Amino acid sequence: MAVQKYNARDVIFQVENYSSPGTWVTIAAGAITTFTKSEEEETTPTTTFGSAGQAESMKMEIGKSLQLEGFRLRDPATGALDPGQALVEGLNERLGPNSLSGFRYAHTTDTTWVVWAQARVSLGDQGGGNNDEVSWSATFTRSGPSTTAAKP
Q: What are the residues whose beta carbons fall under 8 Å from the beta carbon of 18, sequence distance 6 or more?
């Protein structure tokens, strides 16, 4: 079969429960309207007199982040947040080594997860206007390498 486009809406995002390591909680698909994966790099110049005026450099460090944007979900009867969003918001409040937790994502048809065993989170702005639903966003920044894990 030839390669083809696939739906962004079919990507699943999970955060590891920092209170129960090894337990993964899905961030509700109904909370997400868009995601963006970004890559950064740090370079060092290696230009010398022998470079004859041509810039030279090497990549020394790579970083990855993934931003989720959408709506804040809560139970109208209890006020409880979506369990995945609640974990993300809790992780946002942690500091030092406790600020790191697992994050993983995969398309529904993938056989493996992309796993960031250590990631920190930064919440984005929340709010809305008169006729809006409350917005929600979070950026996960990888700390260390990516790995993979088989999906059940």
A: 87, 90, 91, 94, 98, 101
Q: Which helix (H) or strand (E) holds 45?
A: strand 32-45
For residue range 25-65, list pLDDT tens digits in order: 999 999 999 999 999 999 999 999 999 999 999 999 999 99
Tokens of 61: 């460090």
DSSP character at residue 81: B
- What are the residue ranges in the chain where pLDDT is below 50? none
Q: How far is CA 45 from CA 41, 58, 80, 128, in A?
A: 13, 7, 51, 45
In a 13 Å sphere around the CA of 2, the CA atoms on its Cβ side amount to 2
